[in-house]
Structure of Formyltetrahydrofolate deformylase:
Amino acid sequence: MKLTILIHCADSSGIISAVTGFLHKKLGNIIYLDQHVDQQTGVFFMRLECVFEKIEVLTKFKKEFEEDLAQPYKMKWSIHEAGVKPKMAIFVSKYNHCLYDLLSRYNSGELEVTIPFIISNHNDLKSIANQFNIPFHYIPVTKTTKSEAEEQQLKLLKQENIDFIVLARYMQIVSEKLISIYPNKIINIHHSFLPAFAGAKPYHAAYERGVKIIGATSHYVTEKLDAGPIIEQDVTAVSHTHHIKDFILKGRDLEKIVLSRAVKLHLQRKTMVYNNKTVIFT
Amino acid sequence: MKLTILIHCADSSGIISAVTGFLHKKLGNIIYLDQHVDQQTGVFFMRLECVFEKIEVLTKFKKEFEEDLAQPYKMKWSIHEAGVKPKMAIFVSKYNHCLYDLLSRYNSGELEVTIPFIISNHNDLKSIANQFNIPFHYIPVTKTTKSEAEEQQLKLLKQENIDFIVLARYMQIVSEKLISIYPNKIINIHHSFLPAFAGAKPYHAAYERGVKIIGATSHYVTEKLDAGPIIEQDVTAVSHTHHIKDFILKGRDLEKIVLSRAVKLHLQRKTMVYNNKTVIFT
Amino acid sequence: MKLTILIHCADSSGIISAVTGFLHKKLGNIIYLDQHVDQQTGVFFMRLECVFEKIEVLTKFKKEFEEDLAQPYKMKWSIHEAGVKPKMAIFVSKYNHCLYDLLSRYNSGELEVTIPFIISNHNDLKSIANQFNIPFHYIPVTKTTKSEAEEQQLKLLKQENIDFIVLARYMQIVSEKLISIYPNKIINIHHSFLPAFAGAKPYHAAYERGVKIIGATSHYVTEKLDAGPIIEQDVTAVSHTHHIKDFILKGRDLEKIVLSRAVKLHLQRKTMVYNNKTVIFT
Amino acid sequence: MKLTILIHCADSSGIISAVTGFLHKKLGNIIYLDQHVDQQTGVFFMRLECVFEKIEVLTKFKKEFEEDLAQPYKMKWSIHEAGVKPKMAIFVSKYNHCLYDLLSRYNSGELEVTIPFIISNHNDLKSIANQFNIPFHYIPVTKTTKSEAEEQQLKLLKQENIDFIVLARYMQIVSEKLISIYPNKIINIHHSFLPAFAGAKPYHAAYERGVKIIGATSHYVTEKLDAGPIIEQDVTAVSHTHHIKDFILKGRDLEKIVLSRAVKLHLQRKTMVYNNKTVIFT
């Protein structure tokens, strides 16, 4: 049995010793440990992977963890058993490059996840969903139908017990309600090097400004547009020879790679969110 | 004799043919030609390097160039003879990394330039100027002495016929007057990936936002703060393990390299400015 | 009518003037011109894109180009009419990431090409070919059947008038015969930063050596293994925390992007080969 | 009192718990912990930074560490007290860019080190040493004087109790004797992306091969030329427009940055060597 354990709490002396001592007592062999202290706020973060010689009853293990560690140190924690695949919903609109990238990785076994469905406000990408045998729900969104559309989305998400959502160039702003149900569990890709060029048409804005490098940013969605905790960013060089359409083409390659990296980090439980920032364990 | 020729004008058919024909007639061998058309504005840009078998009288050459090419095509142009070193003034405050980088390149013969003096609003870097035997003028700037200080600067710049100015982490905003005398001839280094984090304390702002990449930007100074035409940008990865002081240290390496690249591009006449953007020939 | 013209010949004075003069006389408007002189060998390279007001008869145009320019300057040249899609064959084995990347770009209209078929020495990727409705030919290769297999390949290539071949992680060495029929027209992706780690198992070798950066290289195939003219390379950082399987996963993202970039450069006639090196126009 | 502790030993269950328990008992607060297990060889590596409330007698601390931890787990370990500056000797020949970069960082207080002297087989850089007030020893090396020269070097190194040596583009091969006295304590910068282009004239070789990216590599010197454990690498893009002299100029910026990064990692005790590879803690 292998567990991944995430912890954060106020920093104090002896936490690492207490946690590693507890796991040693449980006959666990720590195969990964990384920790971080945010000096500004005095918050301690830790991620462990631990292999146990014999199978523990997980509920009992969690109860003892809570009593022996979490309560004394006032920890927030989560424990994830290896091999349990999270359920991921994908939201798309008309651009296909991120969807193709995610689905081809999924098909290759690179993403340890199940994909119960794809939701889109357009019908354009239905054929790709069909190609990969993933159910596709066309839920159009207009000004007047926005709340109904969301109800439909929420119903589907609940029905399939979706764990997290990937906005793979979904061109709609998701509602506060959805965000509150999936806090730090909605992953977006924005086609700029945030915080530069937040909002609509970032490639146009980058072209206007005459930048020499463009970027893409994957972040958790919060109520403030394009301002959530950043998971991953990457950039590529451009020059005066590139027009907006070249920015868009070059950007596509960034977007798909950056989004897929962020999804993998999330899946591997390597992300922790605090104070609108992320700790990304490597 | 080797000339570098820069041209821009409204795009029209036959310009390249006319220019290259003119140079061929003058027994010039074109060793470099690059051109660019800005599709949005229909402006044509060209940079040529041309070697001439026999020495032309430059004033005569320029006169014919004006009559045969510039007037018919309504060109703006400049012609630069190889081997003539421009005069560069350096403005600094307290940070030494950009100054060291520029002066060590200068000492190695990497920059084809003369440096008549360094101006600073602090005395801290005087010893470095001494190390490299460059005159150092300490001109303090306070709210009340700002205009006097500038007059002193202008006097020195005029006295030495300075061609262009490098702000090597000069922590003062230069005046509109100075900018108007040196249009597209004042090169600044800003310690962020512009347009993100313009203004003061960009590393603090980047840390607050939780970005995963930081950058530096070299640009020509215009009246609008940190909004001039970008010459060069570069970035480096950061993570949650880096504090603001690490951003500053990592940033230093970016700043000095990016600024030196920009200075070299300017010296080699590889930059053209149009519409608050640059064409950078390679 | 839009033509792309590629030229190379011994460098001499007046070539650019002659070519641009010829095109101007033909009422062509040059919208792109880039040239390069290899100083070591004295060879001149030029790439032009030219739009013509009225449709030229291409055979007549080429005849005059040959007589007026190519013969006097002893040029090697090719002229390509815009809108004519080349025919590209893809060879694969078992890895699907490059194939997925190429086909999803093809489906999105990003690659101006037709793909008459995919050839593979394994049956594993047949379903992907089916997904995208591309004919798939399974031609197994064993020591004893190698030459027969190649005859089958050649027959298919001839039958469909294939213009160029992409080896999208095809794990067989192609024969001298095939290379001689498609000189500088077979594009391979090698999963290392060549010339480091040529040959088999480059990620294993990179891991053994303890490098901090891994790469991928796309090149034209020549008789010497992994030693052909390099079209495109890219790299990504690795650390001691990455095992060989991580190198392979990270490498996949490099491979697919680098190969697709190389294919696009080839399609856009931006590559010229000389002396086992490439000139890549931008 | 702050200590940095480096440990490596055969991996076994309970090590982390034992070490962190020991430090907790000593009233130490762990402010940094990173560990790594080499899966191939089963070797465990750990780096800790620990702050102690009251000053420990270091000899007593080390004795107990040895008895309680090192002996039971058969650890190799080292303990370094913060604030103790190591002594670094710099060896140079004629190139000044790495020397300038190191000395300007040293002067800025960026490197926590003392530099008792610079050794060179040429007199060219003496003036730079003078600029920075560092003693400069000119020790010429010829085929016939090589062993004498080395004796002189060794005498100086011993005299000043030098801790480690930086070869800042020192164009001589150092002897096995010197290497054996300073195992994993001689840092070299090689001007290529190793293992590509080991040995002499790597930029010439890179140009010949037509690579699209060049690199620099900093590594610990071992008896096998350019084959020691790699500490840091970086790369930059090149194209057909760059001649060998451009490779050299662009390479300089890589070399100085990569070497300085490696020196800083070494100084911060963030490097561990095993099996001719490095573990680099971040």
